[in-house]
């Protein structure tokens, strides 16, 4: 059971993540690193959608494992894209390498906070 301290701590980490991504864009007046926020906000959605679409049943455990695996693959792809996108932008000299590092760290903090929120506040099903 997550309490008020957990909500405050996770909100603080989320604010630091957004601050790093926004500063990586605003300090150098190049707003391409903001694309990282979009990838990390969208990253948990395929896992959630495919988990709902699989509808696991107690009698048939492996009924929707292909759908769940596809959701995990898309989530992993989006997380890796959130890391690779600033690296590619820095390599092509679209953004400064320092902005790429700030964007990656901020994006990982954002994604980690989203996953932590879902883990701490997930409702347990009772039979």
UniProtKB/TrEMBL annotation:
Membrane topology: Multi-pass membrane protein
Pfam families from the UniProt entry: Vps55
Spans through the membrane: 7-25, 70-96, 102-121
Subcellular location: Membrane
Domain of life of the organism encoding this protein: Eukaryota
Keywords assigned by UniProt, alphabetized: Membrane, Transmembrane, Transmembrane helix
Gene Ontology biological-process entries: late endosome to vacuole transport via multivesicular body sorting pathway
Signal peptide as annotated in the record: none
An annotated GO cellular component: Vps55/Vps68 complex
Similarity remark: Belongs to the OB-RGRP/VPS55 family.
Protein name (database record): Vacuolar protein sorting 55
């Amino acid at each position: 059971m997550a309490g008020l301290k957990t909500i405050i701590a996770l909100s603080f980490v989320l604010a630091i993540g957004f601050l790093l991504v926004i500063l990586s864009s605003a300090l150098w007046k190049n707003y391409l690193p903001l694309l990282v926020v979009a990838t990390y906000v969208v990253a948990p959605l395929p896992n959630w959608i495919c988990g709902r679409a699989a509808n696991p049943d107690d009698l048939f455990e492996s009924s929707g494992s292909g759908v769940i695996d596809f959701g995990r693959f898309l989530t992993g792809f989006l997380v890796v894209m959130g890391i690779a996108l600033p690296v590619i932008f820095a390599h092509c000299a679209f953004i400064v390498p320092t902005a790429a590092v700030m964007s990656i760290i901020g994006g990982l903090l954002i994604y980690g906070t989203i996953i932590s929120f879902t883990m701490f506040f997930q409702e347990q099903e009772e039979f």
